Amino acid sequence: MKPFLLLATRAEGGAAEEEYESYLNFGGLAPHQLHRVRMEAAPLPAIDLAQYSGIIVGGSPFNSSDPEAGKSALQLRVEKELSALLDTVVAEDFPFLGACYGVGTLGRHQGAVVNRTYGEAIGAVPVTLTAEGRRDSLLDGLPDTFDAFVGHKEAVFTLPPHAVNLAGSPTCPVQMFRVRQNLYATQFHPELDVAGLLTRISVYRNAGYFPPEEAEAVMDSVRPARVTAPPLILRNFTARYAR
Fold first, then answer.
1. Whole-number pLDDT of residue 226
2. Domains of the chain, with CATH numbers?
3. Alpha helices in the chain (DSSP H)
4. Which of 21, 131, 212, 237 is most buried, by CB atoms within 10 Å?
5. Can you give the residue ranges of the Glutamine amidotransferase domain (predicted)?
């Protein structure tokens, strides 16, 4: 089997390693089946799509809708490199799954309006499939409504006409969408369980998602959550596109 490619942008070691392990675990992959490139550490090397089964983009501390003048040189480089890669990925309809940051990468590349209107606080929210979502094989086995972990400052405000909305939540109308037949992005995190989310809360307590002094309260609020359905998306993705 050709490996999948994970494009990561988290500089924080604890969160970065847990993210990689979660994609291995929930994707049903062995380490040699998931090649990780840490884009925050070095420029993106040339990517030969023929060497991979598909591409996964993990979450990110970056917000694509921030004013350009306020973005760091690192963020601007990552955005430029991902956009150039997406030119080819979209043209070839190459299997792609962007989790959370996929909205700011695939979404903006395809002309979606991404802003802070539908940001959601950290926690579990009910996500409901659209009619198109119920017909999409990447969502096979998921109930019509399921809980998923979120925590994001920006989200899709308007999808371009050629994109298909697959799922939404009461406070964020676009939780998952598809472009063409094989390009997907989720706003929620299919790779997170409670333990993983607790790590993120700790690591990003000063990142503006909540007042730093409320970190322990936020952790307490998510500990009882029972979020089990979203990881099935990762298993469906790897099973569908492994080659």
1. 95
2. 4-241 (3.40.50.880)
3. 13-27, 73-92, 101-102, 108-109, 131-135, 194-203, 215-222, 231-241
4. 237
5. 46-192
Per-residue pLDDT band for 76 (boundaries 50, 70, 90) equals: very high
Which phi and psi (to 5°) does residue 11 adopt? -85, -20
pLDDT digits (tens, 9 = 90+) for 128-156: 999 999 999 999 999 999 999 999 999 99
Closest CA to 117 of 172, 160, 76, 56: 172
Pairing of strands 96-99, 55-57: parallel
Place of tokens 């847990």: 18
Q: What is the CA radius of gyration of the chain?
A: 16
Longest CA span, the chain: 48
DSSP characters over 183-229: EEEESS-TT--HHHHHHHHHHTTTTTSS-GGGHHHHHHHHTT----S
Contact call for residues 233 and 142 (beta carbons, < 8 A): yes
Q: Exposed, middle or buried by CB within 10 Å (0-12, 13-18, 19+), for 171? A: middle
Query: What are 25-60's pLDDT values in tens digits?
Result: 999 999 999 999 999 999 999 999 999 999 999 989
* Number of neighbouring beta carbons within 10 Å of residue 127: 27
74 pLDDT more than 80? yes
Nearest one of 220, 233, 17 to 122, comparing CA atoms: 220
Q: Are 138 and 231 in contact (CB under 8 A)?
A: no
Nearest to 191 by CA among 3, 37, 83, 34: 34
